[in-house]
Design the sequence.
């Protein structure tokens, strides 16, 4: 049981664990592990609270359907699983500003939250444009050898590496 | 985009798989901004090692089960306009936010408030903007260079294993190379 209280596992143990998880996800639920559709559904669901049923008629929500679904529950599970892991190892703590961010851009929580929000807009928009994220394309799609997912995953990292260089080498 | 078959499969399994996935991500350090940005700065290769070993393990198992007729693949269809442009926009967001949609859920579980207050709100706004623009994008840019549901073995018109084996070998070599250079 010491394994469960360790703060970090090797990336290989974690990766193999996620790979095996993907077998069972296919076998039992016939579905790859993916996340970003649920955020689009949540976004539509929140809009529906304010603007009513007509939101469901938007063509995009006609396609993905505004339901919680298996994948929404999966995302909820990720929060719980991470919380359990962090609590077991004593790695849970409230934090506004990550240390690497602080070393480059300072300790202001307000600045960090504003930039995180802007990053989130691009991330959510890009995930829907590409039809998936680091889980759906990056892991589940590439392991099925999907052409769409290999192209997307490579572009995630090209865009990510270039933008990070710009942020940390040019702006900071 | 197809109606998802999984929406009818027992939700309890979604919860169980999600808890395990979140547990693994946290144990791997992938719920942390510093680890994800470390990867994009090419100074910490944890994220790539997790992804490549997951793809290696997953691919072999999935294609074995496919060959045995136990499962069917569940692919995302794609196009150049969708995957390249969307992928690059996603990458910019990935760098600015420092989390992705899966790891941000893990980051929230880890207690990271920049993820909960800033990042999550941003993602919901971003997906909402996409939904609003979708009617205009759907038949234009998103269909540019459409190739539909396609796997690499189908693209090369070969048996699945002709691709699976070399990809597995390449991933192993890349991981060995990363370790050898102390990355």
Sequence:
């Amino acid at each position: 049981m010491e394994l469960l209280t360790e703060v970090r596992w090797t990336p290989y143990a974690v990766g193999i664990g996620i790979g095996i998880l993907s077998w069972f996800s296919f076998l039992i639920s016939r579905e790859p592990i993916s996340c970003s559709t649920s955020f689009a559904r949540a976004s539509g669901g929140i809009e529906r609270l304010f603007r009513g049923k007509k939101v469901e008629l938007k063509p995009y929500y006609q396609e993905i359907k505004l339901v919680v679904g298996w994948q929404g529950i999966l995302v909820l599970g990720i929060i719980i699983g991470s919380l359990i892991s962090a609590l077991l190892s004593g790695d849970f703590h409230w934090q506004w500003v990550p240390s690497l961010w602080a070393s480059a851009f300072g300790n202001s929580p307000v600045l960090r939250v504003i930039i995180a929000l802007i990053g989130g807009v691009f991330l959510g928009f890009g995930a829907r444009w590409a039809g998936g994220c680091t889980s759906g394309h990056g892991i589940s799609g590439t392991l099925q050898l999907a052409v769409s997912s290999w192209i997307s995953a490579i572009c995630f990292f090209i865009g990510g590496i270039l933008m990070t260089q710009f942020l940390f080498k040019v702006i900071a | 985009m197809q109606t998802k078959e999984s929406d009818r499969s027992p939700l309890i399994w979604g919860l169980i798989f999600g808890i395990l996935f979140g547990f693994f991500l946290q144990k791997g350090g992938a719920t942390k901004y510093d680890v994800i940005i470390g990867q994009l700065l090419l100074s910490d290769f944890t994220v790539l090692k997790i992804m490549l070993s997951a793809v290696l393990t997953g691919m072999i198992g999935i294609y074995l089960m496919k060959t045995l007729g136990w499962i069917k693949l569940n692919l995302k269809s794609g196009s150049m306009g969708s995957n390249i442009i969307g992928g690059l926009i996603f990458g910019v967001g990935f760098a600015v936010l420092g989390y992705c949609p899966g790891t941000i859920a893990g980051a929230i579980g880890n207690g990271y408030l920049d993820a909960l207050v800033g990042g999550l709100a941003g993602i919901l706004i971003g997906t909402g903007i996409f939904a609003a623009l979708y009617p205009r994008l759907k038949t234009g840019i998103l269909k540019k260079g459409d190739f539909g549901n396609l796997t690499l073995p189908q693209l090369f018109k070969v048996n699945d294993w002709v691709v699976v084996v070399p990809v597995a070998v390449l991933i192993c070599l890349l991981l060995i190379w990363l370790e050898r250079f102390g990355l």
Q: What stands out?
A: Chain A touches chain B through 132 residues (CB under 8 Å). The CA atoms of residues 34 and 135 of chain A lie 5 Å apart. The longest helix of chain A spans residues 147-171.
